[in-house]
Amino acid sequence: MPKSDMPPGALTLLILRVLQSGSLHGYAIAQRIHVLSSEVLAVEEGSLYPALQKMLLKGWVTAEWGISETNRKVRFYRLTVAGRKQLQAEISNYDRVTDAIQAILRTA
């Protein structure tokens, strides 16, 4: 199957949601999104790490160095209280927009 493009703004929502279950390093975040989407969504490094950096600056996640399961030095990202609040805001906005699009698709 061809790779599907992620809708604009979805990456932040997906990263926050995946981190809600616990801290992960960048590659693990990308892999989890890929697996949970039934391998439809692929997160490229060129998108993932800038998004994580923005989330760090906004205080939605924290990061600390650790060792991965493959014995490499990596940064583990963890959701903050502000990140949990932002996740709820992102989910609400996503639901609102999705409902609006579905209404148009049903009635147009």
UniProtKB/TrEMBL annotation:
<dbReference type="Pfam" id="PF03551">
    <property type="entry name" value="PadR"/>
</dbReference>
<protein>
    <submittedName>
        <fullName>PadR family transcriptional regulator</fullName>
    </submittedName>
</protein>
<dbReference type="InterPro" id="IPR052509">
    <property type="entry name" value="Metal_resp_DNA-bind_regulator"/>
</dbReference>
<dbReference type="InterPro" id="IPR036390">
    <property type="entry name" value="WH_DNA-bd_sf"/>
</dbReference>
<dbReference type="InterPro" id="IPR036388">
    <property type="entry name" value="WH-like_DNA-bd_sf"/>
</dbReference>
<dbReference type="InterPro" id="IPR017799">
    <property type="entry name" value="Tscrpt_reg_PadR_acidobac-type"/>
</dbReference>
<feature type="domain" description="Transcription regulator PadR N-terminal">
    <location>
        <begin position="15"/>
        <end position="88"/>
    </location>
</feature>
<dbReference type="InterPro" id="IPR005149">
    <property type="entry name" value="Tscrpt_reg_PadR_N"/>
</dbReference>
